[in-house]
Q: What sequence folds into this?
């Protein structure tokens, strides 16, 4: 090993660093999807939203020189895609799963189209906070370079948990998700609630995308997200629509996704592609373990088409 | 569903109403199935034209080059048909499970696995007569792809895992397996820049239809689509599948083996996509490498939805979308549009087709007097 001092410790350190770094897009997409699904609709298009968010954040950051404007642009792009999803789903007899698939293809296609000129230039990135200043070991310092977006996401999870339980908005979203009839009887428009929930979900997913292009990996190319969005959607099911569980599972997935590059850095290269597929295999395995054909999942919003 | 070949229904629809006043009432449904997706397609093309206009190109040029690149010359027709072949097969991967009410979007994964298994079979049997190798490749491709999607079906049936998400996750896993094998155990040491398996050998390629440059994969696709149509609409098995798709509890009450239905249909669906992978290897690439992940599986989803999951309607729709992707190269060269413009157009079409679902049964003149 090149770094004789810590040797194989590189791997758990890189996994820890990955859990912090790689998990952020998972975290934002899953929290966003959590809000959308709690309102009784599933948006599979967040994969496309993630890629569009990454592209628009990079573009705006490049044009304006401010990465934070890029983050905002990514969020707005995501909210617009969410509004498109919700708008089409409000039409009678339109299936939300199918619309999600369509928007997944549309979002990635549009991002590749508009992002063509962005592959070459370098845009200003988001700054990182150095929590590893106390250590002399470069790997520790690298693992503890934390982005502000990650901290925002970590803070957002308990806030959402609290908001779902106690605020008026949280209650409305849950009512729409559990029984649209009840929400309607209370005099609320279910379509409007779901429109807002899907837009907020898209906003968060877009921000998750901005993290991809502006911090880690930190550039725009067409292979930037391969299935992270859809993994995060599956993760919400595993997390039982609970924002706090979304946080823990996102961290676990970030660690799993960092396994491949970490092993490669210590010279284990043979199964590189298989280790890169670890998050997908993990998702599938978790879904196999936790789902059951005999009962609906505990905590599943009753109006959600995907858990019928 | 009263299903006629889409083209003939349209032709009849134009001529007959004047002669037969009851015609619209009886065939309104069929006309809707042609008219509404057609209108959605036109609307999508219009929106795409505006989109292209915003990037400073002339939309009329766009439409001309799209037509010219897709259907304008015999050369472009052959290009279109070559691309339509895998699209028919991957569309069946979505359309067959749809009869059971399942949304499978993992055709791309089954295509990759089918390509891998077909290539493995060909490499293992080197030296045998080409026909034996080709038949073995077909079998291996169908079985490989079939088992891949059957896995998603089994997870749905026995573990309640959502088949849409699992089949999509399986795409990424299939791609990882392909890259792993192509860069490792199955790598041809001579392939330096683009890691690939060894070639299956020129003699074992399935070749082209005489007089054309279109490979036999198109015939495979058309036969598979017709067979799927007969299976779904003209056999007891297909009838049972449609009952299970319409009402799963009713199907269980009358004693249909729902598990068997799901597993068989998923196997056939994946088998079709696996065959597409075999065709791409045995007619186009000659070997397996990452080029195979060209997105045919994802375009196939759109084909299936645009054809309203009807196996027979898949054939013309696949040719149409094959034409759109065939024209991509020309749009790139003549108009300077990025290669992703085809993806954007496909996305817009998909969105419009789904939104047009709201129109069924609402078009005034097709509703009749009641």
A:
């Amino acid at each position: 090993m090149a770094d004789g001092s810590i040797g194989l410790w590189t791997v758990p350190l890189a996994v820890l660093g990955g859990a912090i770094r790689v998990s952020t897009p998972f975290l934002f997409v899953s929290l966003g999807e959590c809000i959308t699904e709690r309102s009784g609709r599933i948006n599979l298009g967040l994969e496309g939203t993630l890629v569009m968010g990454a592209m628009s954040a990079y573009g705006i950051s490049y044009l304006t020189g401010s990465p934070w404007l890029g983050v905002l642009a990514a969020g707005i792009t995501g909210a617009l895609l969410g509004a498109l999803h919700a708008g089409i789903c409000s039409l009678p007899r339109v299936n939300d799963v199918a619309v999600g698939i369509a928007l997944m293809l549309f979002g990635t296609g549009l991002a590749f189209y508009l992002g063509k000129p962005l592959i070459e230039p370098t845009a200003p990135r988001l700054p990182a906070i150095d929590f590893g200043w106390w250590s002399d070991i470069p790997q520790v310092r690298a693992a503890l370079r934390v982005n502000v977006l990650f901290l925002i996401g970590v803070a957002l999870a308990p806030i959402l948990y609290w908001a779902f339980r106690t605020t008026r908005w949280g209650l409305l979203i849950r009512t729409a998700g559990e029984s649209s009839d009840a929400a309607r009887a209370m005099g609320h428009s279910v379509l409007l609630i779901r429109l807002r929930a899907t837009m907020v979900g898209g906003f968060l997913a877009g921000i998750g995308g901005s993290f991809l292009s502006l911090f880690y990996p930190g550039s725009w190319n067409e292979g930037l997200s391969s299935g992270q969005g859809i993994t995060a959607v599956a993760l919400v099911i595993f997390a039982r629509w609970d924002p706090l569980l979304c946080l823990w599972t996102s961290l676990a997935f970030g660690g799993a996704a960092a396994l491949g590059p970490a092993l490669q850095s210590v010279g284990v290269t043979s199964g590189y592609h298989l280790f890169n597929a670890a998050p997908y295999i993990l998702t599938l395995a978790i879904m196999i373990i936790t789902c059951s054909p005999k009962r609906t999942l505990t905590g599943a919003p009753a109006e959600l088409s995907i858990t019928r | 569903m009263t299903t006629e070949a889409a083209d003939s229904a349209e032709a009849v629809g134009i001529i007959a109403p004047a002669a037969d006043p009851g015609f619209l009432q009886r065939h309104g449904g069929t006309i809707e199935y042609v008219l509404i997706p057609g209108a959605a397609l036109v609307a999508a093309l219009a929106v795409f034209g505006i989109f292209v206009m915003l990037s400073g190109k002339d939309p009329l040029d766009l439409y001309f080059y799209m037509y010219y690149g897709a259907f304008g010359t015999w050369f472009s027709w052959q290009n279109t048909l070559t691309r339509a072949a895998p699209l028919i097969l991957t569309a069946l991967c979505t359309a067959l499970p749809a009869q059971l009410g399942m949304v499978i979007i993992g055709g791309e994964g089954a295509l990759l696995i089918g390509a891998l298994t077909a290539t493995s079979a060909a490499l293992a049997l080197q030296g045998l007569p080409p026909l034996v190798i080709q038949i073995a490749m077909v079998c291996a491709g169908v079985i490989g792809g079939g088992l891949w999607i059957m896995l998603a079906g089994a997870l749905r049936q026995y573990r309640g895992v959502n088949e849409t998400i699992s089949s999509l996750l399986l795409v990424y896993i299939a791609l990882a397996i392909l890259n792993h094998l192509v860069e490792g155990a199955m790598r041809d040491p001579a392939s330096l820049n683009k890691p690939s398996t060894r070639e299956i050998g020129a003699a074992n390629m399935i070749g082209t239809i005489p007089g054309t440059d279109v490979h036999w994969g198109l015939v495979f696709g058309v036969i598979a689509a017709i067979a799927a149509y007969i299976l779904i609409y003209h056999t007891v098995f297909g009838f049972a599948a449609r009952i299970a798709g319409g009402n799963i509890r009713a199907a269980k009450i009358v004693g249909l083996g729902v598990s068997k239905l799901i597993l068989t249909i998923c196997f056939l669906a994946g088998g079709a996509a696996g065959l597409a992978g075999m065709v791409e290897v045995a007619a186009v690439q000659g070997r397996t490498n990452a080029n195979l992940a060209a997105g045919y599986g994802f375009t196939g989803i759109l084909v299936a939805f645009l054809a309203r999951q009807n196996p027979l309607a898949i054939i013309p729709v696949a040719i149409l979308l094959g034409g759109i992707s065939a024209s991509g190269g020309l749009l790139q060269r003549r108009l300077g549009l990025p290669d992703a413009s085809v993806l954007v157009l496909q996305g817009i079409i998909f969105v419009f087709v789904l939104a047009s679902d709201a129109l069924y049964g609402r078009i005034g003149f097709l509703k009749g007097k009641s």
In short: Chain B has one domain: 23-357. Chain B is about 70% helix and 0% strand. The CA atoms of residues 205 and 282 of chain B lie 5 Å apart.
